[in-house]
């Protein structure tokens, strides 16, 4: 009987937060299938550690923490390939990007990960700075600073592009 209650409580938690977890996973990896795998692995690890969850009220933050660590595990041993780039190709690509304009998504991608992740957790996940701090193992003040800097940098990137767009017209 206790097992049935545990399972139902876990299923309720999963149903309540699966869309938010997927959205955050997708923002982290930019790959639909990898995001789905990350969410599934998150649920598998959460089920194994279900007894360690002290308060079900903190389940959302707990799941996001697991997801964030699962994503980090992908890169622990991964060696990134590098290749020499032709400077003229790079400049041509930059010019094309400037001509096409910058979208919000592109601006978010230009933010450093240390700023982007807390901002996305706040905006997409709806977490407080204290919760984000626990998930990312940062102080609340540090999270507040990073979110503030991310918003300022994002605003600057978008204003810069808007100015360029007006000058072209």
From TrEMBL:
Species whose genome carries this gene: Pelomicrobium methylotrophicum
GO BP, sorted A to Z: DNA-templated transcription initiation
Pfam family, one: Sigma70_r2
Residue ranges of every copy of the RNA polymerase sigma-70 region domain listed in the record: 13-78
NCBIfam families in the record: sigma70-ECF (TIGR02937)
The entry's keywords: DNA-binding, Sigma factor, Transcription, Transcription regulation
InterPro entries, A to Z: RNA_pol_sigma-70-like (IPR039425), RNA_pol_sigma-70_dom (IPR014284), RNA_pol_sigma70_ECF_CS (IPR000838), RNA_pol_sigma70_r2 (IPR007627), RNA_pol_sigma70_r4_t2 (IPR013249), RNA_pol_sigma_r2 (IPR013325), RNA_pol_sigma_r3/r4-like (IPR013324), WH-like_DNA-bd_sf (IPR036388)
Domain RNA polymerase sigma factor 70 region 4 type intervals: 104-154
Record family assignment: Belongs to the sigma-70 factor family. ECF subfamily.
Name assigned to this protein: RNA polymerase sigma factor
């Amino acid at each position: 009987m206790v097992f049935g209650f545990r399972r139902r409580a876990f299923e309720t938690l999963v149903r309540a937060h699966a869309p938010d977890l997927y959205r955050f996973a997708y923002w982290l990896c930019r790959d639909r299938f990898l995001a789905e795998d990350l969410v599934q692995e998150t649920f598998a690890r959460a089920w194994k550690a279900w007894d360690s969850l002290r308060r079900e009220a903190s389940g959302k933050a707990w799941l996001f923490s697991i997801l964030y660590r699962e994503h980090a595990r992908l890169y622990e041993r991964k060696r990134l390939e590098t290749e020499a780039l032709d400077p003229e190709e790079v400049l041509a690509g930059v010019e094309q990007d400037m001509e096409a304009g910058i979208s919000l998504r592109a601006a978010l991608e230009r933010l450093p990960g240390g700023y982007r992740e807390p901002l996305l957790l706040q905006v997409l996940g709806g977490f407080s700075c204290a919760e984000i701090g626990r998930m990312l193992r940062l102080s609340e003040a540090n999270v507040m600073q990073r979110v503030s800097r991310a918003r300022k940098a994002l605003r600057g990137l978008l204003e810069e592009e808007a100015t360029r767009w007006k000058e072209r017209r």
